[in-house]
Specification:
The structure is a homodimer. Chain A is of the alpha+beta class. The first copy, chain A, has nine helices and eleven strands. The first copy, chain A, has two domains: about 80 residues, Arc Repressor Mutant, subunit A (Orthogonal Bundle); about 150 residues, 3-Layer(aba) Sandwich (Chorismate lyase), CATH 3.40.1410. Chain A has a six-stranded antiparallel beta sheet with strand order 5-6-7-10-9-8. In chain A, strands 1-3-2 form a three-stranded antiparallel beta sheet. In chain A, helix 2 packs across helix 4 and helix 3 packs across helix 4. The radius of gyration of chain A is 22 Å and the shape is globular. At the A-B interface, strand 8, strand 9 and strand 11 of A face strand 8, strand 9 and strand 11 of B. Chain A binds a DNA duplex through helix 4.
Amino acid sequence: MATPHPSQADLAASEPTLAATPAFSPLYQQIKELILQSLEAGEWKPGEAIPSENELAARFRVSQGTVRKAIDELAAENLVIRRQGKGTFVATHSEQQVRYRFLKLMPDSGDRETEGPAQRTVLECKRVRASAEVARALALRSGDAVIQVRRVLSFGGVPTILEDLWLPGNAFKGLSAEQAEGWQGPTYAMFENEFGVRMVRAEEKIRAVLPDAQQAALLKVSQQTPLLSVERMAFTYNDVPMELRRGLYRTDTHHYRNELS
Amino acid sequence: MATPHPSQADLAASEPTLAATPAFSPLYQQIKELILQSLEAGEWKPGEAIPSENELAARFRVSQGTVRKAIDELAAENLVIRRQGKGTFVATHSEQQVRYRFLKLMPDSGDRETEGPAQRTVLECKRVRASAEVARALALRSGDAVIQVRRVLSFGGVPTILEDLWLPGNAFKGLSAEQAEGWQGPTYAMFENEFGVRMVRAEEKIRAVLPDAQQAALLKVSQQTPLLSVERMAFTYNDVPMELRRGLYRTDTHHYRNELS
DNA sequence: CAGTGGTCTAGACCACTGG
DNA sequence: CAGTGGTCTAGACCACTGC
Protein backbone atom coordinates (compact mmCIF):
# COMPACT_ATOMS: atom_id res chain seq x y z
CA MET A 1 0.00 0.00 0.00
CA ALA A 2 1.40 3.35 -1.05
CA THR A 3 -0.09 5.60 1.58
CA PRO A 4 1.40 5.21 5.04
CA HIS A 5 -2.01 5.28 6.65
CA PRO A 6 -4.40 3.47 4.34
CA SER A 7 -7.75 5.08 4.80
CA GLN A 8 -10.52 2.72 5.67
CA ALA A 9 -12.32 4.01 2.62
CA ASP A 10 -10.11 1.64 0.64
CA LEU A 11 -11.77 -1.35 2.16
CA ALA A 12 -15.16 0.16 2.68
CA ALA A 13 -15.33 1.00 -0.97
CA SER A 14 -14.67 -2.58 -1.99
CA GLU A 15 -17.65 -3.67 0.10
CA PRO A 16 -21.25 -2.90 -0.71
CA THR A 17 -22.19 0.07 1.41
CA LEU A 18 -25.72 0.79 2.50
CA ALA A 19 -26.85 4.34 3.10
CA ALA A 20 -23.62 6.28 3.47
CA THR A 21 -21.93 4.34 6.31
CA PRO A 22 -23.51 6.02 9.32
CA ALA A 23 -21.30 4.43 11.95
CA PHE A 24 -17.55 4.49 12.19
CA SER A 25 -16.05 1.05 11.99
CA PRO A 26 -12.35 0.49 12.53
CA LEU A 27 -10.36 -1.37 9.91
CA TYR A 28 -9.76 -4.41 12.06
CA GLN A 29 -13.52 -4.79 12.56
CA GLN A 30 -13.99 -4.85 8.83
CA ILE A 31 -11.24 -7.43 8.50
CA LYS A 32 -12.87 -9.46 11.22
CA GLU A 33 -16.14 -9.30 9.32
CA LEU A 34 -14.45 -10.51 6.15
CA ILE A 35 -12.83 -13.43 7.95
CA LEU A 36 -16.17 -14.18 9.55
CA GLN A 37 -17.79 -14.34 6.14
CA SER A 38 -15.20 -16.84 4.95
CA LEU A 39 -15.82 -18.84 8.09
CA GLU A 40 -19.57 -18.88 7.47
CA ALA A 41 -19.10 -19.70 3.81
CA GLY A 42 -17.08 -22.71 4.87
CA GLU A 43 -13.92 -21.58 3.10
CA TRP A 44 -12.06 -23.30 5.93
CA LYS A 45 -13.65 -26.26 7.72
CA PRO A 46 -13.72 -26.78 11.48
CA GLY A 47 -10.35 -28.03 12.64
CA GLU A 48 -8.52 -26.68 9.60
CA ALA A 49 -5.98 -23.90 9.71
CA ILE A 50 -6.90 -20.50 8.34
CA PRO A 51 -4.24 -18.58 6.39
CA SER A 52 -1.39 -17.13 8.38
CA GLU A 53 -1.55 -13.58 9.66
CA ASN A 54 0.91 -12.46 7.02
CA GLU A 55 -1.09 -14.07 4.23
CA LEU A 56 -4.29 -12.43 5.39
CA ALA A 57 -2.50 -9.12 5.81
CA ALA A 58 -1.35 -9.35 2.19
CA ARG A 59 -4.77 -10.44 0.97
CA PHE A 60 -6.56 -7.55 2.65
CA ARG A 61 -3.75 -5.03 2.11
CA VAL A 62 -3.42 -4.13 5.76
CA SER A 63 -0.65 -4.55 8.26
CA GLN A 64 -0.14 -7.78 10.12
CA GLY A 65 -1.01 -6.04 13.38
CA THR A 66 -4.45 -5.17 12.12
CA VAL A 67 -5.16 -8.75 11.09
CA ARG A 68 -3.86 -9.77 14.45
CA LYS A 69 -6.37 -7.65 16.30
CA ALA A 70 -9.20 -9.02 14.15
CA ILE A 71 -8.17 -12.60 14.89
CA ASP A 72 -7.74 -11.75 18.57
CA GLU A 73 -11.44 -10.96 18.76
CA LEU A 74 -12.43 -14.08 16.87
CA ALA A 75 -10.31 -16.11 19.27
CA ALA A 76 -11.93 -14.38 22.25
CA GLU A 77 -15.32 -15.44 20.89
CA ASN A 78 -14.13 -19.03 20.54
CA LEU A 79 -14.55 -19.01 16.78
CA VAL A 80 -10.91 -19.78 16.11
CA ILE A 81 -8.07 -21.13 18.20
CA ARG A 82 -4.52 -19.84 18.05
CA ARG A 83 -1.62 -22.23 18.43
CA GLN A 84 1.79 -20.67 18.66
CA GLY A 85 4.19 -22.01 16.07
CA LYS A 86 1.45 -23.87 14.22
CA GLY A 87 -1.23 -21.50 13.08
CA THR A 88 -4.79 -20.40 13.71
CA PHE A 89 -7.51 -23.02 13.44
CA VAL A 90 -11.24 -22.99 13.01
CA ALA A 91 -12.71 -23.97 16.37
CA THR A 92 -14.59 -27.24 16.60
CA HIS A 93 -16.61 -29.05 19.22
CA SER A 94 -14.56 -32.17 18.50
CA GLU A 95 -11.48 -31.04 20.36
CA GLN A 96 -10.75 -32.69 23.65
CA GLN A 97 -10.09 -29.47 25.51
CA VAL A 98 -13.35 -27.76 24.68
CA ARG A 99 -15.63 -30.78 24.60
CA TYR A 100 -18.87 -30.23 26.43
CA ARG A 101 -18.20 -26.51 26.43
CA PHE A 102 -21.94 -25.97 26.64
CA LEU A 103 -22.71 -28.64 29.22
CA LYS A 104 -22.48 -27.02 32.63
CA LEU A 105 -23.67 -29.99 34.64
CA MET A 106 -20.78 -31.32 36.67
CA PRO A 107 -20.46 -34.32 38.98
CA ASP A 108 -20.31 -33.23 42.62
CA SER A 109 -17.22 -35.34 43.09
CA GLY A 110 -15.15 -33.12 40.87
CA ASP A 111 -14.12 -33.30 37.24
CA ARG A 112 -15.57 -35.12 34.29
CA GLU A 113 -12.47 -37.20 33.63
CA THR A 114 -13.05 -39.63 36.45
CA GLU A 115 -16.72 -39.82 35.59
CA GLY A 116 -16.16 -40.87 32.02
CA PRO A 117 -18.32 -40.16 28.98
CA ALA A 118 -22.10 -40.06 29.02
CA GLN A 119 -24.12 -42.98 27.70
CA ARG A 120 -26.70 -41.79 25.22
CA THR A 121 -30.07 -43.43 24.70
CA VAL A 122 -32.18 -41.97 21.93
CA LEU A 123 -35.85 -42.56 22.66
CA GLU A 124 -37.24 -40.76 19.67
CA CYS A 125 -36.03 -39.09 16.51
CA LYS A 126 -38.86 -37.97 14.32
CA ARG A 127 -39.83 -35.43 11.76
CA VAL A 128 -42.69 -33.23 12.99
CA ARG A 129 -44.37 -29.95 12.18
CA ALA A 130 -43.23 -26.99 14.23
CA SER A 131 -45.60 -25.76 16.89
CA ALA A 132 -46.06 -22.03 17.10
CA GLU A 133 -43.66 -21.91 20.02
CA VAL A 134 -40.92 -23.97 18.39
CA ALA A 135 -41.35 -22.10 15.14
CA ARG A 136 -40.89 -18.76 16.86
CA ALA A 137 -37.78 -19.95 18.66
CA LEU A 138 -36.17 -21.32 15.49
CA ALA A 139 -37.30 -18.43 13.29
CA LEU A 140 -39.46 -20.74 11.19
CA ARG A 141 -43.12 -20.67 10.27
CA SER A 142 -45.67 -22.71 12.19
CA GLY A 143 -45.99 -26.07 10.51
CA ASP A 144 -42.51 -26.09 8.98
CA ALA A 145 -40.65 -29.38 9.20
CA VAL A 146 -38.63 -29.87 12.37
CA ILE A 147 -36.61 -32.80 13.64
CA GLN A 148 -37.39 -33.69 17.22
CA VAL A 149 -35.06 -35.85 19.26
CA ARG A 150 -35.71 -37.15 22.74
CA ARG A 151 -32.90 -38.79 24.59
CA VAL A 152 -31.52 -39.73 27.98
CA LEU A 153 -27.93 -39.21 29.06
CA SER A 154 -26.62 -41.47 31.80
CA PHE A 155 -23.45 -41.33 33.85
CA GLY A 156 -22.21 -44.58 35.30
CA GLY A 157 -25.52 -46.16 34.42
CA VAL A 158 -27.55 -43.52 36.25
CA PRO A 159 -29.98 -41.61 34.01
CA THR A 160 -29.19 -37.98 34.72
CA ILE A 161 -30.39 -35.86 31.83
CA LEU A 162 -33.58 -36.12 29.83
CA GLU A 163 -33.73 -33.77 26.91
CA ASP A 164 -35.72 -32.85 23.84
CA LEU A 165 -34.03 -31.25 20.85
CA TRP A 166 -35.77 -29.39 18.06
CA LEU A 167 -33.77 -28.78 14.89
CA PRO A 168 -34.75 -27.06 11.64
CA GLY A 169 -35.77 -29.86 9.26
CA ASN A 170 -34.11 -28.09 6.40
CA ALA A 171 -30.60 -28.03 7.77
CA PHE A 172 -30.79 -31.44 9.45
CA LYS A 173 -32.45 -33.43 6.70
CA GLY A 174 -31.85 -37.12 7.17
CA LEU A 175 -30.81 -37.10 10.82
CA SER A 176 -31.47 -40.59 12.16
CA ALA A 177 -31.75 -42.08 15.62
CA GLU A 178 -28.72 -44.29 14.90
CA GLN A 179 -26.67 -41.26 13.99
CA ALA A 180 -27.78 -39.39 17.10
CA GLU A 181 -27.04 -42.33 19.35
CA GLY A 182 -23.99 -43.87 17.75
CA TRP A 183 -21.81 -40.82 17.27
CA GLN A 184 -18.69 -40.74 19.38
CA GLY A 185 -18.15 -37.44 21.13
CA PRO A 186 -20.27 -34.34 21.52
CA THR A 187 -23.52 -34.07 19.59
CA TYR A 188 -22.44 -30.66 18.38
CA ALA A 189 -19.38 -32.27 16.81
CA MET A 190 -21.74 -34.57 14.91
CA PHE A 191 -23.69 -31.54 13.72
CA GLU A 192 -20.46 -30.07 12.35
CA ASN A 193 -19.32 -33.22 10.61
CA GLU A 194 -22.61 -34.53 9.28
CA PHE A 195 -24.54 -31.35 8.59
CA GLY A 196 -21.99 -28.57 8.43
CA VAL A 197 -23.74 -26.73 11.24
CA ARG A 198 -21.45 -25.13 13.79
CA MET A 199 -22.95 -23.91 17.07
CA VAL A 200 -21.21 -20.78 18.20
CA ARG A 201 -23.16 -19.41 21.11
CA ALA A 202 -26.10 -20.36 23.32
CA GLU A 203 -28.45 -18.94 25.93
CA GLU A 204 -30.01 -20.90 28.74
CA LYS A 205 -33.01 -20.24 30.98
CA ILE A 206 -33.01 -22.30 34.12
CA ARG A 207 -35.86 -23.15 36.45
CA ALA A 208 -36.65 -25.63 39.18
CA VAL A 209 -39.53 -27.97 38.33
CA LEU A 210 -41.17 -31.24 39.25
CA PRO A 211 -41.32 -33.92 36.55
CA ASP A 212 -44.51 -35.37 35.18
CA ALA A 213 -45.06 -39.12 35.46
CA GLN A 214 -43.34 -39.96 32.19
CA GLN A 215 -40.33 -37.76 32.86
CA ALA A 216 -39.95 -39.18 36.35
CA ALA A 217 -40.05 -42.72 35.00
CA LEU A 218 -37.41 -42.02 32.37
CA LEU A 219 -35.06 -40.48 34.92
CA LYS A 220 -35.95 -43.13 37.48
CA VAL A 221 -36.87 -40.63 40.16
CA SER A 222 -40.07 -39.95 42.04
CA GLN A 223 -42.40 -37.20 40.93
CA GLN A 224 -41.52 -35.35 44.10
CA THR A 225 -37.88 -35.01 43.06
CA PRO A 226 -37.12 -31.41 42.04
CA LEU A 227 -35.19 -31.14 38.78
CA LEU A 228 -33.43 -28.40 36.88
CA SER A 229 -35.26 -27.35 33.76
CA VAL A 230 -32.73 -26.00 31.28
CA GLU A 231 -34.04 -24.41 28.10
CA ARG A 232 -31.29 -23.71 25.63
CA MET A 233 -31.25 -21.75 22.40
CA ALA A 234 -28.14 -22.45 20.36
CA PHE A 235 -27.00 -20.23 17.50
CA THR A 236 -24.71 -20.55 14.51
CA TYR A 237 -22.89 -17.65 12.92
CA ASN A 238 -24.78 -14.38 12.73
CA ASP A 239 -26.98 -15.33 15.66
CA VAL A 240 -29.09 -17.61 13.50
CA PRO A 241 -30.99 -19.95 15.86
CA MET A 242 -30.38 -23.60 14.97
CA GLU A 243 -31.45 -25.59 17.99
CA LEU A 244 -33.97 -25.44 20.77
CA ARG A 245 -33.26 -27.82 23.60
CA ARG A 246 -35.22 -28.54 26.75
CA GLY A 247 -33.42 -30.53 29.36
CA LEU A 248 -34.27 -31.93 32.77
CA TYR A 249 -31.22 -32.39 34.96
CA ARG A 250 -31.04 -34.47 38.08
CA THR A 251 -29.08 -32.59 40.71
CA ASP A 252 -28.74 -35.22 43.41
CA THR A 253 -25.24 -36.19 42.32
CA HIS A 254 -24.51 -33.35 39.91
CA HIS A 255 -24.78 -29.58 39.90
CA TYR A 256 -24.94 -26.81 37.33
CA ARG A 257 -21.72 -24.88 37.52
CA ASN A 258 -21.40 -21.26 36.51
CA GLU A 259 -18.60 -18.74 36.61
CA LEU A 260 -19.39 -15.09 37.12
CA SER A 261 -16.97 -12.34 36.30
CA MET B 1 15.24 3.41 28.14
CA ALA B 2 18.47 3.20 26.18
CA THR B 3 18.11 -0.20 24.55
CA PRO B 4 15.57 -0.42 21.76
CA HIS B 5 14.19 -3.65 23.12
CA PRO B 6 14.21 -3.37 26.90
CA SER B 7 14.82 -6.84 28.21
CA GLN B 8 12.29 -8.10 30.66
CA ALA B 9 15.16 -8.68 33.05
CA ASP B 10 15.03 -4.94 33.73
CA LEU B 11 11.65 -5.22 35.34
CA ALA B 12 12.04 -8.69 36.72
CA ALA B 13 15.18 -7.60 38.52
CA SER B 14 13.33 -4.82 40.30
CA GLU B 15 10.85 -7.34 41.67
CA PRO B 16 11.64 -10.02 44.22
CA THR B 17 12.25 -13.20 42.27
CA LEU B 18 11.76 -16.64 43.76
CA ALA B 19 13.75 -19.60 42.55
CA ALA B 20 15.22 -18.44 39.26
CA THR B 21 12.06 -17.46 37.34
CA PRO B 22 11.12 -20.79 35.83
CA ALA B 23 8.37 -19.58 33.51
CA PHE B 24 8.62 -16.98 30.81
CA SER B 25 6.36 -14.03 31.45
CA PRO B 26 5.93 -11.31 28.86
CA LEU B 27 6.51 -7.73 29.87
CA TYR B 28 2.88 -6.72 29.62
CA GLN B 29 1.98 -9.47 32.08
CA GLN B 30 4.45 -8.09 34.54
CA ILE B 31 3.01 -4.61 34.05
CA LYS B 32 -0.46 -6.04 34.55
CA GLU B 33 0.71 -7.61 37.78
CA LEU B 34 2.12 -4.30 38.98
CA ILE B 35 -1.10 -2.45 38.21
CA LEU B 36 -3.00 -5.25 39.92
CA GLN B 37 -0.92 -4.77 43.04
CA SER B 38 -1.73 -1.07 43.09
CA LEU B 39 -5.38 -1.95 42.65
CA GLU B 40 -5.26 -4.36 45.58
CA ALA B 41 -3.34 -1.91 47.72
CA GLY B 42 -6.10 0.60 47.11
CA GLU B 43 -3.81 3.12 45.47
CA TRP B 44 -6.85 4.08 43.36
CA LYS B 45 -10.35 3.62 44.80
CA PRO B 46 -13.29 2.08 42.95
CA GLY B 47 -14.74 4.62 40.56
CA GLU B 48 -11.55 6.67 40.42
CA ALA B 49 -9.40 7.06 37.35
CA ILE B 50 -6.07 5.29 37.20
CA PRO B 51 -3.12 7.13 35.61
CA SER B 52 -3.20 7.55 31.86
CA GLU B 53 -1.50 5.04 29.62
CA ASN B 54 1.31 7.48 28.91
CA GLU B 55 1.88 8.12 32.60
CA LEU B 56 2.02 4.42 33.38
CA ALA B 57 4.30 3.84 30.41
CA ALA B 58 6.68 6.47 31.77
CA ARG B 59 6.45 5.09 35.30
CA PHE B 60 7.27 1.54 34.24
CA ARG B 61 9.72 2.54 31.48
CA VAL B 62 7.89 0.65 28.76
CA SER B 63 6.09 1.73 25.63
CA GLN B 64 2.50 2.89 25.72
CA GLY B 65 1.49 -0.14 23.66
CA THR B 66 2.73 -2.50 26.33
CA VAL B 67 0.77 -0.72 29.06
CA ARG B 68 -2.18 -0.78 26.71
CA LYS B 69 -2.09 -4.54 26.40
CA ALA B 70 -1.85 -4.92 30.17
CA ILE B 71 -4.88 -2.68 30.70
CA ASP B 72 -6.74 -4.50 27.93
CA GLU B 73 -6.58 -7.67 29.97
CA LEU B 74 -7.63 -5.94 33.16
CA ALA B 75 -10.58 -4.46 31.30
CA ALA B 76 -11.48 -7.89 29.90
CA GLU B 77 -11.60 -9.19 33.47
CA ASN B 78 -13.87 -6.32 34.52
CA LEU B 79 -11.31 -4.94 36.92
CA VAL B 80 -11.15 -1.58 35.18
CA ILE B 81 -13.34 0.21 32.68
CA ARG B 82 -12.01 2.21 29.76
CA ARG B 83 -13.77 5.36 28.66
CA GLN B 84 -12.52 6.94 25.49
CA GLY B 85 -11.55 10.55 25.94
CA LYS B 86 -11.86 10.36 29.71
CA GLY B 87 -9.58 7.74 31.10
CA THR B 88 -9.48 4.29 32.66
CA PHE B 89 -11.42 3.78 35.87
CA VAL B 90 -11.38 1.24 38.65
CA ALA B 91 -14.51 -0.87 38.19
CA THR B 92 -17.19 -0.67 40.85
CA HIS B 93 -20.45 -2.45 41.57
CA SER B 94 -22.09 0.96 42.01
CA GLU B 95 -22.28 1.78 38.32
CA GLN B 96 -25.67 1.65 36.72
CA GLN B 97 -24.51 -0.38 33.72
CA VAL B 98 -22.97 -3.22 35.65
CA ARG B 99 -25.28 -3.31 38.64
CA TYR B 100 -26.39 -6.77 39.56
CA ARG B 101 -23.63 -8.18 37.38
CA PHE B 102 -23.65 -11.28 39.54
CA LEU B 103 -27.42 -11.68 39.86
CA LYS B 104 -28.55 -13.90 37.02
CA LEU B 105 -32.18 -14.19 38.05
CA MET B 106 -34.31 -12.33 35.51
CA PRO B 107 -38.04 -11.65 35.36
CA ASP B 108 -39.72 -13.77 32.70
CA SER B 109 -41.33 -10.64 31.30
CA GLY B 110 -38.04 -9.25 30.12
CA ASP B 111 -35.64 -6.73 31.57
CA ARG B 112 -35.06 -5.50 35.08
CA GLU B 113 -35.90 -1.88 34.30
CA THR B 114 -39.64 -2.39 34.20
CA GLU B 115 -39.44 -4.57 37.27
CA GLY B 116 -37.78 -1.97 39.43
CA PRO B 117 -35.34 -2.53 42.28
CA ALA B 118 -35.58 -5.35 44.78
CA GLN B 119 -36.95 -4.72 48.26
CA ARG B 120 -34.60 -6.05 50.89
CA THR B 121 -35.68 -7.42 54.24
CA VAL B 122 -32.92 -8.44 56.57
CA LEU B 123 -34.13 -11.15 58.95
CA GLU B 124 -30.89 -11.70 60.74
CA CYS B 125 -27.43 -10.22 60.97
CA LYS B 126 -25.33 -11.83 63.62
CA ARG B 127 -21.81 -12.65 64.59
CA VAL B 128 -21.28 -16.42 64.81
CA ARG B 129 -18.47 -18.94 64.91
CA ALA B 130 -17.62 -20.54 61.60
CA SER B 131 -18.73 -24.12 61.15
CA ALA B 132 -16.19 -26.46 59.61
CA GLU B 133 -17.90 -26.11 56.27
CA VAL B 134 -18.08 -22.32 56.28
CA ALA B 135 -14.53 -22.10 57.54
CA ARG B 136 -13.25 -24.25 54.72
CA ALA B 137 -15.09 -22.20 52.12
CA LEU B 138 -13.80 -18.90 53.45
CA ALA B 139 -10.29 -20.17 54.15
CA LEU B 140 -10.70 -19.60 57.88
CA ARG B 141 -10.32 -21.87 60.86
CA SER B 142 -13.29 -23.56 62.46
CA GLY B 143 -14.65 -21.31 65.17
CA ASP B 144 -13.32 -18.07 63.68
CA ALA B 145 -15.73 -15.14 63.79
CA VAL B 146 -18.08 -14.88 60.86
CA ILE B 147 -20.92 -12.50 60.09
CA GLN B 148 -24.08 -14.27 59.00
CA VAL B 149 -26.86 -12.41 57.25
CA ARG B 150 -30.22 -13.82 56.32
CA ARG B 151 -32.47 -11.79 54.08
CA VAL B 152 -35.35 -11.87 51.65
CA LEU B 153 -35.43 -10.03 48.34
CA SER B 154 -38.85 -9.19 46.94
CA PHE B 155 -39.88 -7.90 43.54
CA GLY B 156 -43.16 -6.01 43.37
CA GLY B 157 -43.96 -7.21 46.86
CA VAL B 158 -43.44 -10.87 45.98
CA PRO B 159 -40.73 -12.57 48.04
CA THR B 160 -38.49 -14.18 45.43
CA ILE B 161 -35.07 -14.80 46.91
CA LEU B 162 -34.15 -16.05 50.35
CA GLU B 163 -30.45 -16.03 51.04
CA ASP B 164 -27.86 -16.52 53.70
CA LEU B 165 -24.53 -14.75 53.52
CA TRP B 166 -21.40 -15.67 55.42
CA LEU B 167 -18.63 -13.07 55.60
CA PRO B 168 -15.24 -13.16 57.33
CA GLY B 169 -15.75 -11.37 60.64
CA ASN B 170 -12.38 -9.77 60.33
CA ALA B 171 -12.99 -7.87 57.13
CA PHE B 172 -16.62 -7.03 57.88
CA LYS B 173 -16.32 -5.97 61.51
CA GLY B 174 -19.30 -3.86 62.49
CA LEU B 175 -21.68 -4.80 59.72
CA SER B 176 -25.19 -4.12 61.02
CA ALA B 177 -28.66 -5.15 59.92
CA GLU B 178 -29.54 -1.49 59.29
CA GLN B 179 -26.55 -1.13 57.01
CA ALA B 180 -27.40 -4.30 55.14
CA GLU B 181 -31.01 -3.33 54.71
CA GLY B 182 -30.81 0.40 54.23
CA TRP B 183 -28.09 0.66 51.63
CA GLN B 184 -29.22 1.92 48.26
CA GLY B 185 -27.98 -0.18 45.37
CA PRO B 186 -26.14 -3.48 45.19
CA THR B 187 -24.89 -5.08 48.37
CA TYR B 188 -21.49 -5.48 46.77
CA ALA B 189 -21.36 -1.71 46.31
CA MET B 190 -21.92 -1.37 50.05
CA PHE B 191 -19.05 -3.79 50.66
CA GLU B 192 -16.80 -1.55 48.57
CA ASN B 193 -17.83 1.67 50.23
CA GLU B 194 -18.12 0.56 53.83
CA PHE B 195 -15.49 -2.15 54.08
CA GLY B 196 -13.17 -1.63 51.12
CA VAL B 197 -13.85 -5.14 49.90
CA ARG B 198 -14.26 -5.45 46.16
CA MET B 199 -15.72 -8.67 44.74
CA VAL B 200 -14.07 -9.52 41.49
CA ARG B 201 -15.23 -12.97 40.53
CA ALA B 202 -17.65 -15.65 41.70
CA GLU B 203 -18.58 -19.27 41.17
CA GLU B 204 -22.05 -20.71 41.53
CA LYS B 205 -23.31 -24.25 42.01
CA ILE B 206 -26.97 -24.66 41.18
CA ARG B 207 -29.40 -27.37 42.17
CA ALA B 208 -33.12 -27.93 42.30
CA VAL B 209 -34.47 -28.45 45.81
CA LEU B 210 -37.61 -28.40 47.91
CA PRO B 211 -37.72 -25.91 50.77
CA ASP B 212 -38.11 -26.86 54.40
CA ALA B 213 -41.05 -25.49 56.34
CA GLN B 214 -39.30 -22.31 57.40
CA GLN B 215 -37.93 -21.53 53.97
CA ALA B 216 -41.30 -22.14 52.37
CA ALA B 217 -42.96 -19.79 54.83
CA LEU B 218 -40.46 -17.02 54.21
CA LEU B 219 -40.90 -17.26 50.46
CA LYS B 220 -44.65 -17.74 50.81
CA VAL B 221 -44.73 -20.91 48.78
CA SER B 222 -45.76 -24.47 49.59
CA GLN B 223 -43.20 -27.05 50.54
CA GLN B 224 -43.93 -28.80 47.27
CA THR B 225 -42.70 -25.84 45.22
CA PRO B 226 -39.32 -26.65 43.64
CA LEU B 227 -36.75 -23.89 44.05
CA LEU B 228 -33.32 -23.13 42.68
CA SER B 229 -30.57 -23.57 45.22
CA VAL B 230 -27.69 -21.26 44.31
CA GLU B 231 -24.47 -21.57 46.26
CA ARG B 232 -22.08 -18.78 45.47
CA MET B 233 -18.45 -18.27 46.38
CA ALA B 234 -17.31 -14.70 45.74
CA PHE B 235 -13.66 -13.70 45.56
CA THR B 236 -11.67 -10.48 45.85
CA TYR B 237 -8.34 -9.92 44.18
CA ASN B 238 -5.97 -12.87 44.08
CA ASP B 239 -8.84 -15.32 44.35
CA VAL B 240 -9.20 -14.70 48.06
CA PRO B 241 -12.65 -15.97 49.09
CA MET B 242 -14.66 -13.28 50.86
CA GLU B 243 -18.25 -14.42 50.78
CA LEU B 244 -20.23 -17.61 50.86
CA ARG B 245 -23.83 -17.17 49.85
CA ARG B 246 -26.65 -19.69 49.74
CA GLY B 247 -29.76 -18.57 47.93
CA LEU B 248 -33.15 -20.06 47.22
CA TYR B 249 -34.74 -18.61 44.10
CA ARG B 250 -38.38 -18.85 43.16
CA THR B 251 -38.65 -19.59 39.47
CA ASP B 252 -42.36 -19.25 38.89
CA THR B 253 -42.04 -15.71 37.58
CA HIS B 254 -38.29 -15.51 37.15
CA HIS B 255 -35.55 -17.63 35.61
CA TYR B 256 -31.82 -17.97 35.92
CA ARG B 257 -30.29 -16.71 32.72
CA ASN B 258 -26.93 -17.84 31.42
CA GLU B 259 -24.96 -17.14 28.28
CA LEU B 260 -22.71 -19.82 26.86
CA SER B 261 -19.96 -19.10 24.43
C1' DC C 1 -7.80 23.36 22.67
C1' DA C 2 -5.17 19.68 25.26
C1' DG C 3 -5.61 15.19 27.03
C1' DT C 4 -7.60 10.76 26.97
C1' DG C 5 -8.19 6.18 24.91
C1' DG C 6 -8.43 3.86 20.05
C1' DT C 7 -6.47 2.60 15.54
C1' DC C 8 -2.84 1.62 12.28
C1' DT C 9 1.65 0.91 10.56
C1' DA C 10 6.46 -0.91 10.01
C1' DG C 11 9.96 -3.30 11.66
C1' DA C 12 12.54 -5.96 15.02
C1' DC C 13 13.04 -9.79 17.74
C1' DC C 14 11.29 -13.89 20.72
C1' DA C 15 9.08 -18.54 21.51
C1' DC C 16 7.36 -22.48 19.62
C1' DT C 17 6.50 -26.13 16.04
C1' DG C 18 7.79 -29.29 12.67
C1' DG C 19 10.47 -31.03 8.88
C1' DC D 1 15.93 -24.34 9.55
C1' DA D 2 11.79 -21.74 7.88
C1' DG D 3 7.24 -20.57 9.21
C1' DT D 4 3.93 -19.67 12.67
C1' DG D 5 1.98 -16.88 16.34
C1' DG D 6 3.59 -13.64 20.35
C1' DT D 7 5.88 -9.49 22.12
C1' DC D 8 7.65 -4.86 21.97
C1' DT D 9 8.66 -0.46 20.19
C1' DA D 10 8.09 4.24 18.08
C1' DG D 11 5.49 7.24 15.84
C1' DA D 12 1.43 8.94 13.40
C1' DC D 13 -3.17 10.00 13.28
C1' DC D 14 -8.33 9.46 14.69
C1' DA D 15 -12.40 9.81 17.90
C1' DC D 16 -14.13 11.46 21.99
C1' DT D 17 -14.38 14.39 26.26
C1' DG D 18 -14.39 18.52 28.70
C1' DC D 19 -12.61 23.03 29.61
